[in-house]
């Protein structure tokens, strides 16, 4: 990643800002600016997600307040996202992976993916210029898809790992929800293998955080050191399109 980039993360759910938080924080560390926009985030959870974004050094995060189960391809929906893109004028956009979105059974992921890609395309055209005064078309940035099924890029996040973990600590509602899920689905013996002492944790938030710590490290080590990689901890991405190089690089 080049120094001093302007990165815009276009997320569907709040926790995603932490899932790609390593790249966002690394960009800030290298002198760049990172921004975020979330489509679906309950009002009660927004302060937690904002706190997580601040830990990562995100300059500004906006909540678009789409409603669950109603994400569509209306002109008004497109304008919400086009407005963000034209305001930030990013060099890079990070967003959800199209392939992943079709397999994920979280609601709204599939229409959200089409909406996001349409808005990215429209932001570079003469779309809604009268309705968005002062916001000129912005060329389509380089796009990276987060948590892809078939990554072609990994980012070394070892230097910002602790920031990413602190950001996850901010997401109380998500951790409580995850704790309820893990407590129900995991066999007690399996839970103890993953996190020794799991049965002694006293609330769902602690249980959620415990398993997320295990999952986070496992995923990032897998994409880093475990796959003959150069980095101890890495976030995986898939770049849209070819890499355009003046010459081959190491």
Automatic annotation (TrEMBL):
InterPro entries: GlcNAc_PI_deacetylase-related, LmbE-like_dom_sf. Signal peptide: none annotated. It comes from the Bacteria. This is PIG-L family deacetylase. It comes from Mesobacillus jeotgali. Its cofactor is Zn(2+).
């Amino acid at each position: 990643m080049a120094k001093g980039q302007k990165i815009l993360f276009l997320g569907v759910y709040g926790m995603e800002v932490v899932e790609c938080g390593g790249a966002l924080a690394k960009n800030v560390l290298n002198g760049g600016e990172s921004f975020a926009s979330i489509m679906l985030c309950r009002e009660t959870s927004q302060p937690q997600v904002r706190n997580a974004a601040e830990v990562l050094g995100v300059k500004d995060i906006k909540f678009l307040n789409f409603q669950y189960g109603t994400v569509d391809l209306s002109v008004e929906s497109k304008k919400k996202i086009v407005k963000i893109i034209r305001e930030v004028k990013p060099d890079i956009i990070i967003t959800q992976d199209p392939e992943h979105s079709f397999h994920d059974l979280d609601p709204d992921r599939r229409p959200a993916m089409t909406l996001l890609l349409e808005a990215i395309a429209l932001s570079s055209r003469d779309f809604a210029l009268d309705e968005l005064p002062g916001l000129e078309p912005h060329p389509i940035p380089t796009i990276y898809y987060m948590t892809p099924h078939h990554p072609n890029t990994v980012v070394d996040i070892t230097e910002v790992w602790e920031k990413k973990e602190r950001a996850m600590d901010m997401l109380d509602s998500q951790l409580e929800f995850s704790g309820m899920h893990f407590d129900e689905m995991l066999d007690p013996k399996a839970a103890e293998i993953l996190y020794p002492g799991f049965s002694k944790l006293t609330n769902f938030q602690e249980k959620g955080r415990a398993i997320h710590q295990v999952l986070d490290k496992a995923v990032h080590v897998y994409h880093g050191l475990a796959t003959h990689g150069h980095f101890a901890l890495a976030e995986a991405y898939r770049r849209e399109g070819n890499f355009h190089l003046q010459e081959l690089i190491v």
